[in-house]
């Protein structure tokens, strides 16, 4: 979670730190093993072989699944027949070497729209392509310049709507690298995401939502005449947290706000809203409302409001799980994809009774999804589904069919096996809260031996760890392959236990959530052979903050790696590009209540820190700006604690460069190996 980037005065200092830190290692950002440990090289090589499907869409009749995966020459687009498992790829033009992504079926199932950059003249620019089932050929529909995402057919099949940023220079949202400081800040070069509509028959195109609103998500009305969308005034990276639901005629016109959570009373007041969905009769718009950290990491209760506006109604009050995605099945039922503890559950909720249908439910101890929206699913007219499944034991693949009889559709990673140990679900009680987490055992575990422990805290805080195959990015799972127990808790503030649990660390970052984590550690230590002298802590974003803060509160951890963290909430408020998220979590701005920000700032307790800490961040991170990492690194150096700061050029909150992702992982692996070495015959030595 937790944007604009580095202040000009700090940029030379940070670049100097980057260079100095790189030179302190044996090599630069090249991904080679600095420790010479062959296990690290083997692990990184294995992670790099994983192929991850990105989208899965089942046809309306449930017979074909369209899915995409990135290949060496671009995205491959596959069509797989469920009955015969016959698979073929499609391309946007003769001679094209790749296909595309974001497939979406027309309502009659006779056409498939997708996005592609693979046309001979595309030059990296995505366009909307329409494939015909009848002819087997693709035709380019749009000829635009800018970012295109989230294509969606109108229910009458005549138009395709999508999110569009004209002449975009970066991906919309706060995770991408922010633009360098230039010109009049907050006014020059602001890029606005709008709904664009292309007519399928003529190819004509128009942007239909106003320039004054940045649109995050949209949905067609059942009669194709209107949109419902979540939007806020630009800049879009900052205002999702205060967005409203609007309706508007699909051909253009003035938008009408039907929900502003700042103006409603009750539990929805001031919270975030996502995934607007028209009811089949067009009379209601349902949505998810809750305390959310980032767009795309959605969670809360499911609410509804009249399509003409009015008082919103909570359809799932008191739920002890966290809906993340849903779809109307008919007037009387909605299908929900949700976090249940650290697992994923699909279930049908009956609106007339307000109860779940337990006979229509399946729980996966894994992560599921389809496309860019977390936990999203694709549903046919007959209730068949397509999803992407991933766990600690199994690399991601596409599955489809009846909910309780899913079949594996893709076979991208059948030959890849985990190099890490077995998985265990861990549950414990703390201060009246039921808390859950995941534990990975060391590879080749021997109960007669003692092992070190790495605690890996997720981002968010409104998020959750669910079992997922690790990619070539930063996370806790790889440490298991090097002989560590890896504990990944879901403390208060996480999804999976209901909205009250998610909101339980408001105005309390680093306190109740840290006590949940350490109590979970106590639970594990009481029954497993863990070497308490070799316990480490790491995390990214909120997990990076928790790493910085925890080492200022306890000496329990003997080494730490803080990724894209926050060390000083007071200065952070004025540095980041997403300050709107902070009011719901802290209760007031830093200018109105500086004390609540100070109490959770690691920099206030920097003299307490003794834990050697590696600090890593991107130089254009807008969510957790690099000066926050600089402050923490500077403070540790001032009090004599071993530390190192590495700043990665041209990276935002989510790293894009494979070389940089590999480098971060390798540095962290080596940091813990060096700072928490195994004991050998009464001495210590690197492993």
Written account of the structure:
- With 687 residues, the chain is an alpha+beta fold.
- It has a domain at 11-49 and 418-677: Alpha/Beta hydrolase fold, catalytic domain (Rossmann fold, 3-Layer(aba) Sandwich), CATH 3.40.50.
- The chain has 12 helices and 39 strands.
- Strands 30-31-33-32-34-35-36-37 form an 8-stranded mixed β-sheet, sandwiched between helices. Strands 25, 26, 27, 28 and 29 form a 5-stranded antiparallel β-sheet that branches.
- Strand 15 (244-249) and strand 16 form a beta hairpin.
- The longest helix is centred in the C-terminal third of the chain and has 18 residues, at 658-675.
- It is globular and about 70 Å long.
- 54% of the residues are buried.
| Sequence stretches where pLDDT stays below 50 over 5 or more residues | 2-34, 681-687
Provide mean pLDDT, rounded.
91
Radius of gyration (CA) equals 25 Å
Kindly provide the name of the CATH class of one domain: Alpha Beta
| Beta-strand residue fraction | 25-35%
User: So, CATH architecture of one domain?
Assistant: 3-Layer(aba) Sandwich
Number of strands: 39
By CATH, the superfamily of one domain comes out as Alpha/Beta hydrolase fold, catalytic domain
How does the helix and strand content classify structurally?
A: alpha+beta
Strand order of the largest sheet: 30-31-33-32-34-35-36-37
What form results from the Cα inertia axes? Answer: globular
Report the helical percentage. 10-25%
Instruction: Determine the N-to-C terminus distance.
Output: 34 Å
| Major β-sheet annotation | 8 strands, mixed
CATH topology of one domain: Rossmann fold
